[in-house]
Amino acid sequence: MLPARMINEYVYCPRLFALEHLDGQWADSADTVRGARVHRKVDTPDNRPLESADEAPVTRRSLDLGSETLGVVARLDLVELDGDWAVPVDYKKGKLPRRGPWDPERVQLCLQALLLREHGYTVDHGVLYFAGSRKRVEVPIDEELVALTKQAIHDARALLDTPRLPLPLVDSPRCPKCSLVGICLPDEQHNLDDDQASVRPLAPARHDGVPLYVEHRGAKLAIRGGEIAVLIEGKIAERVRLIHTTAVIIRGAVSITSPLLHALAEAQIPVSLHKWSGWHVAEVVPVSGHHVLGRVAQHAVAADPERAVRVAREIVAGKIRNQRVLLRRNGQGDRTAVLTQMKALADDAAQCTQVPVLLGLEGAAARAYFQSLSSMIRNDELGKMFSANGRNRRPPMDPVNALLSYGYGVLARECTSVLHRVGLDPYVGVYHGLRPGRAALALDLMEEFRSVIADSAVLRAVNTGSLTADDFYMKKTGVRLKDAGRRRFIRTIEDRLAEEIVHPRFGYRMSYRRILEVQARLLSKTFLGEIDRYPVFRIR
Prior knowledge:
With about 550 residues, this protein is of the alpha/beta class.
């Protein structure tokens, strides 16, 4: 049976209803938090049978009722009973609108009245109490409102039986206050269909928190007073508020308590587990936000070579173009030949129809780019150590390549976490092949951001002198970062992820970490067929 609040949400916005109840998406906003606070007074359940009300007028709070006939259940905030007469009272957090109550509130109140009628009470009106203005408004339960309510129940149930998301509202005043606006991206989707459509900066520019990195051997993580406590040798070394944390990254021999894992899951905060070497071995993610429709569509695209390559070529072409922009901005000397070559390779990639050919084009562009990377290094000491052949790995043989490898590892973990959060399967990609344990879609998503985030962080750390040769272990078998250097480099990457820019397509400010999430959601929209082609992120 459908909860009455679901019918309210359907009348307010069918897409909001579908995202929450068909697709398992949810997000809190200031309005939902305030609404929960307003309901505290009436949310203590009253478990007495409804028939126990005596003849004198009484009130009952937080009353649960259901109807098989209507197929609806509801928790009534408050019911005023006087013999066979009943008046449902529904609490609203905001102020009374100038034009009076809106249809979603009236429909929800009507549902409560119909449930009371099913239980034998006479109900001719209900009351909406607006906490913001402290006003009670009587709403007649007439035939017109009853018909509207029953039609909403029918339409909402029909939508649940149709595995498709309705289109977002167009330029609606409802969107700015919607808690799911950062998930739905209504203006962004319409702008991709019509580049003349305006885009309002509806979602926050950046996340409020940052990841918590813990790598002290023998450290223990626990929950203390609603905060994450880092204990070293039994003493609290650091306390971090949950609301200021976007992820917990554990490296090496660090333990974590079950109560903290529960708290992190409830707060939608993932936990990444890494070996001491840095290898990503596990991701602990909440079970909510399954986004089944997106994953089904993703797997269908991945299984169709023709559809998969249409997404893959946008990713590769975008990657090459972003590499080219970084080289054009920061390289020294005459780079005309390599920039011309990379432009041609990007144009060819954008028209490619076969993944093997696409791999060849990407490889050619990567060789040209990394052989020119030294022109962007201002640090003479580390620049001279950089391999003349460009990129090397497994293991990296010079400090710059060691930083590149570590930066790509951090970016891959961030992309894996983002894909989990938006409900896609990180292990089924459209460009990188399937391989056990490889997060193929995370690697797909990170391609367009390799130069923008990881390479830029490497150049910043090297060129500003934040890292020197003393921050590396240099052996014939490979080069790796020392602990102090790694911590400074992590800060550099996090600073880059937190950096805000004006989005080149949508025109409002957001951080690179937020852009990663937006791109993951646009990727999901591409899989679902809500937009025709994947709009890869490109710097100018």
